[in-house]
Give the backbone structure.
Amino acid sequence: MHLLVVIAILAITWRLFFKDRKAEWRLGVPVRRIVSADVGIDAPRSKLFAKEHGVIGSPDYVVDDRPILALWISKIMKRPLSPVYMPIEVKSARVRYPRMADVFQLLTYCFLLEENGLTVNRGRLKYANTYFDIPYGPAQRQEVLRVVEEIREAERMNDLPRFAPAQNGRCRWCEFRTVCS
């Protein structure tokens, strides 16, 4: 009987270990550092809002981006470190360099985290074959605000881009499908 319990515990531990390792490989960060997720794992889900700017979004993952060594030192010295967060957006494409639309999407998530009172220094675009860490600071914040204003102006002027019929399948789940044709 004891042998069966030991085997069951080992099997469960083995399964959990490899499940975590697969997710770590997929994201490039330890699973235990995931703060929220918008995809199929057991982590809190969160929509981010910037009401003043009319921006809403939800990155695939938000992780604790504090360096591990700094966390250990802060625990030893019993001085908590201020949290630093990093949004991660996972894409299925294989690329050599990040796509501009994906970069702006990621920078918007950085902006949303910042607008919600969180510290953000970078974001990560994880493609099928590689990943890119995209820095975020005051210049990127201003660029996000500029693009948001351009979109608002296009919306006011009823000058939103119209998509070709071949792209309509991509629009099925889009939050903006009601204003696009």
User: Anything to note?
Assistant: The CA atoms of residues 40 and 85 lie 20 Å apart. The beta strands are 34-37, 48-50, 55-57, 61-64, 85-90, 122-126, 131-135.
